[in-house]
Amino acid sequence: MISPRSHPASGFMPPHVLERVATHGSVRLKRCAQATLRVDAEFRARSAVAPAARPADSARRGAPARYIYSAGNEQTLPGELVRREGKSESGDAAIDEAYHWLGATYRFFWERFERHSIDDDGMALLGTVHYGDGYDNAFWNGAQMVFGDGDGELFNRFTASLDVVAHELTHGVIEREAGLIYADQSGALNESLADVFGILVKQYHLEQRVDESDWLIGASLLTDRVNGRALRSMANPGTAYDDPVLGRDPQPGHMDQFVSTSSDNGGVHINSGIPNRAFYLAAVTLGGAAWEVAGPIWYDALTDPRLTREADFVAFAELTLLCAARRYGESGREVEAVRQAWIGVGVLT
Ligand SMILES: [Zn+2]
């Protein structure tokens, strides 16, 4: 069953960014940001609704079933079916990116973990592009993924970054596996896991080792008018952008700077910087490709029945140690690298 409280209908874009744009942006930007915030609030108030005529899942393990729709700049879901599995390029960048990036994400989970789509049972991958007018967000609503075109001034279309698409799809996986409640520390863990698998999918697709990755989330999302590199940096949380309109990246990378706030569901897009950096530290210490050793430990923890919906950072950190020990042995360098990573961000002592 879909749990209404674990699906992050507030979307990829942190509300604090949109609120900044709604007060500091140009007239047009303000209008886009305010409209986006309104739509997001409506989605938060509603639980997921599966499309009336749900298309067929994939019956063949190892093969996805993708369905890309266009909302035609309206706000109806899922919209008109514009590309389905096996069909050729549409020539529309957002449609084709959604198709390819959902495919790359499916391929990662299949080839690394033999996971057959979001539910490991071939669940059809539904993505709607051209949602709304100047809509500055992307989200997973519990039944499908939705991508806006962005305002074009600060933000490009939300299909532009592979890791953003992978982030949204991973929210579906998290919901099925752990159901982490989307508030406070469990919500920040939910956000962090979406970033962890977002960056893993990107690195896997680009065949990048840990020292070749930019460790940035949403790098292609920002236009060159923004003084910033991306929306989040997993290597150095808090350094992704510093811009007159967007403000400064508020992410902490250590428990000493943990942000207590009631906004953003208790800072889920803010404090996720702490577990994000822990993953980065573990992956860099272990070296090679992050999907070889560090990724599987995090995947084991995400899919471990001992991970509860209310898990906090400490509970998740301890679980990664148990998973590392089970996979690589108690006294292996893997357990030690993971332990040092969590110590490095102040979660474990
Ligand atoms: Zn998210």
Q: What does this protein structure show overall?
A:
By secondary structure, the chain is α/β, with parallel strands linked by helices. It folds into two domains: 163 residues, Elastase, domain 1 (Roll); 161 residues, Orthogonal Bundle (Neutral Protease, domain 2), CATH 1.10.390.10. Helix content is 41%, strand content 9%. It is built from ten helices and nine strands. The strands form three sheets. The chain has a five-stranded mixed β-sheet with strand order 2-1-3-5-4, covered by helices on one side. Strands 6-7 form a two-stranded antiparallel ribbon. A hairpin with a 4-residue loop joins strand 4 and strand 5. Helix 3 crosses helix 5, helix 7 runs antiparallel to helix 10 and helix 8 packs across helix 9. It is globular, with a radius of gyration of 19 Å. It binds zinc ion. The site of zinc ion has 6 residues, from helix 4 and helix 5. Zinc ion binds next to helix 4 and helix 5.
